[in-house]
C-alpha cells in the first residue's frame, strides 16, 4: 500500500478518535483514487479531507462518491480559490456544495448552530470555563453567551 493510503487510514483513525466515533474504512477503489490525487495542499489537505469524510460519509465504508468533487477538479471554478485548501472556510464550502448537490435546503439553519456550538466550546475550553472571558473572546456580552448556551442545549 502506498504512503498516501497509509496516511489517509491514519488520519481517519485520528479523526474518529477525536470525534468519539468508529473509524471509517476506505473502499479499495476510494483508496486508489486518493493515492492518485496530487494533494496540492499536501498532508494537511489529506488530513482535513479525512476529518471531513469521518463526519460526512454516509456509510462506514468510504465510497468514491463520498469524496468531495473538488478533489477531482484541477482547479474547481466554483470553489473558493482565494482560500487555502486546508482552511475551515474551504471545508465549509465543500460541505455546503455537497449538501446542496444532495438536495439539502436550509443549510444556514443547520450550519449556524454547529458553528456557534464549536466556537462556544472552544472559547470555554480556552478560558477554562470562564464565561465572561469566553464571551469577550467571541465578541459577545456575557448575557448573549448565556442565552446561546441555553439555546444550543449546552448549559
UniProtKB/TrEMBL annotation:
Superkingdom of the organism of origin: Bacteria
Keywords: Activator, ATP-binding, Cytoplasm, DNA-binding, Nucleotide-binding, Phosphoprotein, Repressor, Transcription, Transcription regulation, Two-component regulatory system
SUPFAM superfamilies documented for this protein: Homeodomain-like, P-loop containing nucleoside triphosphate hydrolases
Keyword set includes Phosphoprotein: yes
A molecular function (GO) term: sequence-specific DNA binding
Positions of the Sigma-54 factor interaction domain: 8-55
PROSITE patterns, per database record: SIGMA54_INTERACT_3, SIGMA54_INTERACT_4
InterPro entries, alphabetized: AAA_lid_NorR, Homeodomain-like_sf, HTH_Fis, P-loop_NTPase, Sigma_54_int, Sigma_54_int_dom_CS
Main localisation: cytoplasm
GO terms of biological process kind: phosphorelay signal transduction system; regulation of DNA-templated transcription
Location of the protein in the cell: Cytoplasm
Keyword Cytoplasm belongs to the record: yes
Any one GO CC term of the record: cytoplasm
PANTHER family on file: DNA-BINDING TRANSCRIPTIONAL REGULATOR NTRC, TRANSCRIPTIONAL REGULATORY PROTEIN
Protein's UniProt name: Nitrogen regulation protein NR1
Species this protein is from: Salmonella enterica subsp. enterica serovar Wandsworth str. A4-580
Amino acid at each position: 500500500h502506498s504512503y498516501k493510503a497509509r496516511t489517509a487510514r491514519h488520519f481517519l483513525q485520528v479523526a474518529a478518535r477525536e470525534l468519539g466515533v468508529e473509524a471509517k474504512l476506505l473502499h479499495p477503489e476510494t483508496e486508489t483514487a486518493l493515492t492518485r490525487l496530487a494533494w496540492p495542499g499536501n498532508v494537511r489537505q489529506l488530513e482535513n479531507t479525512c476529518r471531513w469524510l469521518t463526519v460526512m460519509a454516509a456509510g462506514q465504508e468510504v465510497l468514491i462518491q463520498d469524496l468531495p468533487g473538488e478533489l477531482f477538479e484541477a482547479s474547481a471554478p466554483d470553489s473558493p480559490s482565494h482560500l487555502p485548501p486546508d482552511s475551515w472556510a474551504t471545508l465549509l464550502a465543500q460541505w455546503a456544495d455537497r449538501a446542496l448537490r444532495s438536495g439539502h435546503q436550509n443549510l444556514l439553519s443547520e450550519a449556524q448552530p454547529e458553528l456557534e456550538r464549536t466556537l462556544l466550546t472552544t472559547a470555554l475550553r480556552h478560558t477554562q470555563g470562564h464565561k465572561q472571558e469566553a464571551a469577550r473572546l467571541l465578541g459577545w456580552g456575557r448575557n448573549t453567551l448565556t442565552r446561546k448556551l441555553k439555546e444550543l442545549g449546552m448549559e
